[in-house]
Amino acid sequence: MTPLLLGAVLLGNLGVCVTAQVLVMLTPPAQVRFDSMDYKNILHWTPPTNNTSLRYYVQWKIYGEPQWVDVDGCQGIKKQECDLSDVTSDLREWYYARVHASSLPSSKSAWALSPRFSPRWDTQISPPALRLNVTEQKVVVRVKGPHPLVRKMHSKLHYKIFLIHTSGEEEVFKMDCCSNKLTLKELGHKAKYCLQAQTVITSQAKSSVRSSLKCVTML
């Protein structure tokens, strides 16, 4: 074989190797899902490998629409999450998102798809925060409601206040969202009570988890 012919064969083999390397596909991201609290809709995923140089590209679309749209700020990112709150804010719609991984210079994964997501039904609502002030035989309960966006989205909103006796018996009190104070009277002298609160969206028959326990001992 002449040197010229041998060189051509070697170059051809090199070209085959380079082409094969370019066509290698990465494993796609896993566990692509929306985590939503108080209408802050964050897409999360698990990286396909421990390769810290991977970059991710995120797209979204409305259910039933053919066109995928790039998410601004989530193209070529290294973190494994993307905030889609702005583009998924319409409570009437259902959404999908997808993400793929890329490794320089040219390897990339297939797209990994999220489950269908509804901000109306899939977001979790946070419970209100409680502040307690104990006076003689009274507890003044002040409530700080959930994120303002929740109150903006839902006019029919109220709170449940749970008064828990040491026996385990519970009393439930209802507060309108426009109120921020409830006075519990005629409580036992030196008795201990614990309180929790819950946000309730009347129009959806939907409620938050209860807040953490806050306990007081009467004067």
UniProtKB/TrEMBL annotation:
Q: Lineage of this protein's species? A: Eukaryota, Metazoa, Chordata, Craniata, Vertebrata
Secretion signal, residue range per the UniProt entry: 1-20
**InterPro entries registered for this protein in UniProt:** FN3_dom, FN3_sf, Ig-like_fold, Interferon/interleukin_rcp_dom, Type-II_Cytokine-TF_Rcpt
Entry's family note: Belongs to the type II cytokine receptor family.
Which GO CC terms are listed, alphabetically? Answer: plasma membrane
Native source species: Seriola dumerili (Greater amberjack)
Q: Return the protein name.
A: Interleukin 22 receptor, alpha 2
Q: Where is the Interferon/interleukin receptor domain?
A: 123-217
Please, which domain of life does this record's source organism belong to?
A: Eukaryota
Tagged with keyword Disulfide bond: yes
Query: What are the Fibronectin type-III domain coordinates in residue numbering?
Result: 10-111
Coiled-coil stretches: none
UniProt GO MF annotations: cytokine receptor activity
Please provide the record's keywords in A-Z order: Disulfide bond, Receptor, Signal
List the CDD domains hit by this protein, alphabetically: FN3
